[in-house]
Every structure is written in structure tokens, then in C-alpha cells.
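A quick aside before the break. I want you to see a complete sequence-to-structure record at least once, exactly as it would be stored in a machine-readable document. Don't worry about memorizing anything.
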Amino acid sequence: MPKLEVEGVGAFDVEDGKRLVLAIEEDASVDILHRCGAYAKCTTCRVEYVEGEPEQMTQAEREILQTKNLAGQVRLSCQILCDHDMKIHVPMTVTSMGLDGPGSKPEPCITPEPEWVEKEKTA
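That is the input. The structure line, written in C-alpha cells, reads:
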């Protein structure tokens, strides 16, 4: 069972293969944003990795991070599966942004259907 550590919140055992955005919201009880419903469109579910960043990403994640000039800085929790231990920082929450809610409930599986690619190397 992978361990998810959220900075400033704690460490949690999460179901292997669970979508990271759901693990943050349900297991860690963090009010993370997912304004687009977790379809890799808005980048509000972004996380910063402290340890354990995955080597792969979805093509949808790569494209939106490049478009928003966020590649190499953050990852999208809606596009990541909990299949190993990781430590993250969650910069955008409902509370910190003063919004009325996180967005539509994410599906249990990654949406859109994932096409896996190697993450971009940063200098």
C-alpha cells in the first residue's frame, strides 16, 4: 500500500492505483481544487513534488503544462496514480483560493483515457 505524505497535513496509506487527486481529497482530507472535473484542462489540481515524482505522465498533462508554462514546476494530481510512496505540497485549495467548492467530483479512473509518455527532463 503506497504512502502519501502531504506537507503540513500528515502521511496516509492509500489504495494502490488510486487517483492522486482523490487520495488527497478523500484520504488526506485536503480541499484540493479540481475545477475542470479532473480532465487535465485547468491545472487547479496541481501539486509540487518533494519526493517520489513519477517518471511518466499522460500526454494530456504534458500538453496543458506546456501550454500554461508550468512544465517542470508542478504536476497535475488528476493525471497521477498512487502506485508508490510520494511526498507532495498542495499549493491550491478551496480555502486558500477563497472559492465556493473544488469542482465536479473526479472519476475513479484517469480522464481523459491516459496515453503515457516520459516526463520532460528539467535542467
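Two observations worth writing down. The two ends are 32 Å apart (CA to CA). DSSP finds three helices and nine strands in the chain. We'll return to this after the break.
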